[in-house]
Batch of 2 targets.
Target 1
Amino acid sequence: MIEQSLNNLILASSSERRIALLKQINIEPGLTLPADIDETPLKRELPKNYSIRMAKSKAEKIQNSNPNYFVLGVDTVVACGRRILLKAKNIEQAERCIRLLSGRRHRVYTSVCLLTPDRSKEHIRTVVTIVKFKRLSEQEIKYYLASEEWKNRAGGCNMQGLAGIFVLFLRGSYSSIIGLPLYETYCLLSNYFNLNLY
């Protein structure tokens, strides 16, 4: 197997968090291109299946225009039971999410899809992390909503910011709930790229 240059890798996202997480392990994709896809869940679609479909759809959308590149697609989904909590677009959605998660366990699914050039191979990994929030007071809810940190965050949660103080416990991958499971991503990419950690 010929080891590839990271210049041949496209991250199908413009997320600053994902870019920063990759840099944390000395990975800098040649390109970062956001994939504009329909993110509407299918009827009765389970959260894990949804996260896989979104990650794969993002990677495929970018590779359609860039067939000679490796493409990494990622999607993070917050779920309460079977219910998918989408990115909060407004304060009403954010409030519904944060009240639903208050005092409860929820799951965060992050799927990573790596497509090799010309889609000759497809690798998918999904990481599930269980998170429990403390029971939030009305004052804490108002304070969090006023911060606007919930904007465009899955389930209205910014774990790197204020929402981090609501976490009673977490079982799984911390980097995954921020947006990219580092261990799984590193393992996938190291099959094709010479990754220098030092």
Note: The first strand starts at residue 9 and ends at 11.
Target 2
Amino acid sequence: MVDLEFDEFGTGVAVLTIDRPHARNAISLETMGQLDEAIDAAAGAQALVIKGAGDRAFVSGGDLKELSALRTEQDAAAMARRMRSVCDRLAAFPAPVIAAMNGHAFGGGAEVAVAADIRVAADDIKIAFNQVQLEIMPAWGGAERLAALVGKSRALLLAGTGTALEAAEAERIGLVDLVLPRASFESADKGWRSVANSLARRPAAEIKRVIGGVSADEAIASFARLWVGDAHWQAAERVMNRTANPRPAAGGAI
């Protein structure tokens, strides 16, 4: 089952949760369809979070028990195209997409994680492109996205050997962007929600579009639209007021 909820604080954050505890949040054919529907329903969100239910698995990959019924090249290719399309849609979502890695991300789960713009991980999780243990390779766009993050040589080493990385090492090489303590991972003010809410309240979607590749003129036009917006002038007014009326130093005269 895939759940989609919008945050209760009105910041425009949509949270997509893969909730299949019996399969460690593995992805079945039905799950792929539900993910497509959830992405459709999230249209208009200022930030989209994808996570797994519980605290053991983000996504443990494809549901091997179900997918083992695919025995022809045509069926295997159709499955790969279907889930690659889902990952492509996550990557192309207009607003920032955050993978809240609440648990381990193995195989296809790692591919889902790298389809997001930002990966926030609990400090006790592992991530591995370990499809080689099944004598196959990443097929959902993960190999290419991994190479874009860590370089071709390191991507080949990781995916070619199936090495599992601790969260801290994944952060060191740029595969994970932020590692948070398990104890505060789900907290509203220090966990992944804080990251998502901060992105949703700012023009991060426009920044994502420019980073994705636009002309210099388009980038400048985006800036100019933001410059004349009410949100900019309200923020500028707050800054100018603080500058004109600085707070006195602690213990100083008023």
Note: The first helix runs from residue 29 to 41.
